[in-house]
Amino acid sequence: MGEGLAREMRKLPVFELDDERVDDVHVLVPHGEIDALTAPTLGRRMLELIEDGTSRLVVDLSETTFMDSTGLGVLVNGLRQ
């Protein structure tokens, strides 16, 4: 791997999504940055849960370090669903 590519890979945002059910509530906890690259992952999971009949969904942003307008759009879209 070239040095330039390795340097670029280190710049990718760190993102993880914890996903758990607590009683009758489903909790998603995104860790790291929610931006144009990572927001689709959160959005897909939210839509999967909604389509599967989840009616109580919490997105805990306490571990989110940054969110751009794409991330906000994903949250608004989930709320509309």
Walk me through the structure.
This protein has 81 residues and is α/β, with parallel strands linked by helices. The protein has helices spanning 3-10, 39-51, 69-80; strands at 15-22, 25-34, 57-59, 64-67. Strands 1, 2, 3 and 4 form a 4-stranded mixed beta sheet that branches. The longest helix has 13 residues, at 39-51. The mean pLDDT is 89.
Oligomer: single chain
Structural class: alpha/beta
Element-level helix/strand string: HEEHEEH
Helix content: 40-55%
**Can you count the beta strands?**
4
* Total count of helical runs of at least 4 residues: 3
Biggest sheet overview: 4 strands, mixed
Cα Rg: 14 Å
Distance between the termini: 43 Å
Question: How much of the residues is beta strand, in percent?
Answer: 25-35%
- The overall average pLDDT, rounded, is 89
Q: Write down the overall geometry.
A: globular
Unreliable spans: none
How would you summarize the topology of this molecule?
Layout: H1 3-10, E1 15-22, E2 25-34, H2 39-51, E3 57-59, E4 64-67, H3 69-80
Parallel strand pairs: 2-3, 2-4
Antiparallel strand pairs: 1-2
Helix pairs in contact: 2-3
Name the features:
single chain, 41% helix, 4-stranded mixed beta sheet, alpha/beta, 3 helices, 81 residues
Summarize the structure.
The protein is an alpha/beta fold.
